[in-house]
Design a protein that fits this description.
Elements: E1 6-7, E2 19-20, H1 45-59, H2 77-84
Antiparallel strand pairs: 1-2
Helix pairs in contact: 1-2
Length: 91
C-alpha cells in the first residue's frame, strides 16, 4: 500500500474494517513533554547541528504544529533550527 500498512488478519479473522497505521513512525519510548530547558550549548556549528538533530528525534513528531526557540542575539538559534529541520531555508 502507499506508505501505510494494514492491520488485521486474513479473511474471516480479525476486524471487519481495515485499520491503517499512520505515515510517521510512532516512538513510544520517547513520549515525553518538554516545556522548558536550559542548555549551555556546545561550541561550534557542527555540534549545534548534532544537538538539533538529537532534539528533533527525541521530541518532535510529524503532527507537531509549532516549535519555539528563544535566545539572545548570536546564541545559535538559527543554527539549532537548521539542525532540527535539515533542508529548511531560513529567510
Amino acid at each position: 500500500m502507499d506508505g501505510a500498512e494494514t492491520l488485521g488478519g486474513s479473511e474471516g479473522t480479525g476486524p471487519s474494517k481495515s485499520t491503517y497505521l499512520p505515515f510517521f513512525e510512532y516512538r513510544p519510548h520517547s513520549h515525553e513533554t518538554l516545556i522548558y530547558a536550559t542548555y549551555y550549548a556546545p561550541r561550534g556549528r557542527q555540534r549545534l547541528y548534532m544537538l538539533g538533530n538529537e532534539l528533533s528525534y527525541r521530541y518532535l513528531y510529524a503532527n507537531d504544529l509549532i516549535v519555539g526557540v528563544i535566545g539572545g542575539p548570536g546564541s545559535g538559534k538559527s543554527t539549532l533550527v537548521r539542525g532540527l529541520f535539515p533542508g529548511l531555508e531560513l529567510t
